[in-house]
Each structure stands twice: as C-alpha cells, then as structure tokens.
Amino acid sequence: MSRKLIVGGAQLGPIQPDESRESAVARMVELLREAKSHGCGLVVFPEMALSTFFPRYYAEDITEMDHHFEREMPNDAVRPLFEAAAEADIAFYLGYCELTPDGHHYNTSILVDKGKIIGKYRKIHLPGHAELDENRPWQHLEKRYFEPGNLGWPVWRCKGGIMGMGLCNDRRWPETYRVMSLKGVEMTMFGYNTPDRNTAAPEPNHLRMFHNHLTMQAGAYQNSTFVVGVAKAGLEDGCMLIGGSCIVQPSGEIIAQASTVEDELIVATCDLDLAKMGKETVFNYAKHRRIEHYGIICSQTGVEIPEGV
Ligand code: ING
C-alpha cells in the first residue's frame, strides 16, 4: 500500500518593498495553477510570502511596519489564492505576518485545505536582534517586530498524511522536528527568507546553502519525515536572499531542488509510507529511544564538566 501525494514547492523570487499583496498573490496563484497541471495535492509557499523581508530595516516605532501585517486571514487580497486552491483541491502552506485583534505580532504560517484554515503555527525561533545594530549592512530585526510563537508545534491530518509546520530559523533546531516527530509527523514544511550573508559574524558564503540543506536533510532522516523547504529568494532592495528550495524524503535525500532565485515550482511525488518505514525500524522511538538512560533533561545547560584525569 502506498500513500502517494504529489507535492509542490512554490518558491518566490523577490518581493520589493513597494510591491502590493495583490501582486504577490497573483504570482502565487500562477504557481498554484502550474502545480495543478502537475497533479499536485499540496503546495508550500515561503515565509512572509505577502511582503518584502522588512526586518532588514530599522523603525523606531514598530507600528510603522504594521502595514506588512494581516489583521485577518483570509482577507480580500489573499482570497483569490484560497479560492484558486479550493477549486483545484490543493492544500497549501502560507507564511505571513499576523497582527492579532489584541495587538500581538507573529511570524505565522497556516495550513489550508478545501478553502479552510486547518492549522496555524507561529514562529518560535526568532533569529537576529531587537535593537539597531550599526555594524550590520542590513538589520535582522525579527526579535523587534515579532513575538515568539505561542502555539508549540502541533500536527494535523491532511491529504492522507500527518503534516507539521515550522518557519525558517526553526529548521536549524533539532527540537523543531523532534517535537513533531514524537507526535507522528510525516511531512514538515518550512518557508524561509535567508539572506545570503551572515551579518552577525564572518562566515564563508558557501555555508549558507550548505547549512540550509544540511539542517533539513538531517531533520528529515533523524525524524523519518519528509521536509519541504521553500524560499523567498533573489535580490530584495539590494539584499540577496538564497534560493535552494527543496523537497527531502525521509532517507535524507533531496528529491527536488530549485535552480533559480525567481518564482519557480519544484515538484515531487512523495509516498508518505516511506515516513512510516523509518518510524517502524531505525527510528522506532518505543523500541530504541532510551530516554530514561539519557541522565539529563533536554533543557539542562551549563552542567559542571569534571577535569580530565
Ligand atoms: N532567516 C535566517 C534563517 O534562519 C539566519 C536567519 C540565517 C540565522 C543564517 C542564522 C544563520 O534562515 C530567518 N528569517 O530566520
């Protein structure tokens, strides 16, 4: 028995500061139509897919960035995407900036199926800094504009499998995959906006893409899950964002990868039963994961390290 799902990764090229939501949505509807022609049942869009990556800019008054946030979802600008997906019977992951009625700001993703939001996630690992850093050519002020997510990492049944979501920096942390994997996740989705230069520390440029794929391939293998990572890429207002969108199978192998830094659809047929195999053999937690012998709790840091003899 196999549970084959054709999955699309809908990478977006740059969204310039003055580009409208409507324009970004039209680009996504175009990619969704292409996905339909490939028989896709699920499409993953990037993180912050409705706006430019505005945390690269400093604003003294953070409400100056509120025009990049959605106060309701769906809304008039995004509804064409919801409608096109429902008509095509395609479920989708969408990353956007959420401003709640009681004034909280989150970097959020939703899972939508049959035109309805069936799942929501709010980004937990916010990289960068909260105050202006004059030493950086670009800021990375996610800690200024967003609050840490407060929904944990839930999983949902969708399109015959168990789906989970993360956002960008979350893909670098093993806990992200493990929490969902302990709940049985078979496919985890990450939109991302990753500048091609690390403005926090001197780092050889090639490591950007290496770490991008390393983290998702490791997360896939060590948690026996598919991983779909989808970039917003290209030159946004002079700041280059990496592409490299990819679909990784539970073996850790990349089975589809973007080759541009523009709007580009990648497609792979994913047999969700491949995730089951790993969970029943190598990563059978009940049989092999001896947490009672670990001797430490996961949050323990700064332990006394005895001097060597
Ligand atoms: N972007 C980057 C990311 O985690 C980053 C920030 C890059 C942090 C490289 C550390 C190293 O891919 C977002 N938006 O999280």
Brief write-up:
By secondary structure, this protein is of the alpha/beta class. It is built from seven helices and 14 strands.
List descriptors.
alpha/beta; 7 helices; 6-stranded mixed β-sheet; Nitrilase/N-carbamoyl-D-aminoacid amidohydrolase; 26% strand; 309 residues
Describe the secondary structure blueprint for this structure.
Elements: E1 4-11, H1 21-37, E2 42-44, H2 79-88, E3 91-99, E4 105-113, E5 116-122, H3 142-145, E6 155-158, E7 161-167, H4 174-182, E8 187-192, H5 206-222, E9 226-231, E10 234-236, E11 239-241, E12 246-248, E13 254-257, E14 264-271, H6 273-280, H7 285-288
Parallel strand pairs: 1-2, 2-3, 7-8, 8-9
Antiparallel strand pairs: 1-14, 3-4, 4-5, 6-7, 9-12, 10-11, 12-13
Helix pairs in contact: 1-2
The structure holds D-[(amino)carbonyl]phenylalanine.
Structure description:
The protein has helices spanning 21-37, 79-88, 142-145, 174-182, 206-222, 273-280, 285-288, and strands at 4-11, 42-44, 91-99, 105-113, 116-122, 155-158, 161-167, 187-192, 226-231, 234-236, 239-241, 246-248, 254-257, 264-271. It is α/β, with parallel strands linked by helices and 309 residues long. It has a single domain (4-283), classed as Nitrilase/N-carbamoyl-D-aminoacid amidohydrolase (4-Layer Sandwich), CATH 3.60.110.10. It has a six-stranded mixed sheet with strand order 5-4-3-2-1-14. A six-stranded mixed sheet has the order 6-7-8-9-12-13, covered by helices on one side. A two-stranded antiparallel sheet has the order 10-11. Helix 2 links the parallel strand 2 and strand 3. Helix 1 (21-37) packs parallel to helix 2 (79-88). The relative contact order is 0.17. Bound molecules: D-[(amino)carbonyl]phenylalanine (ING). D-[(amino)carbonyl]phenylalanine binds at residues 127, 168-169, 172, 192-194, 198.
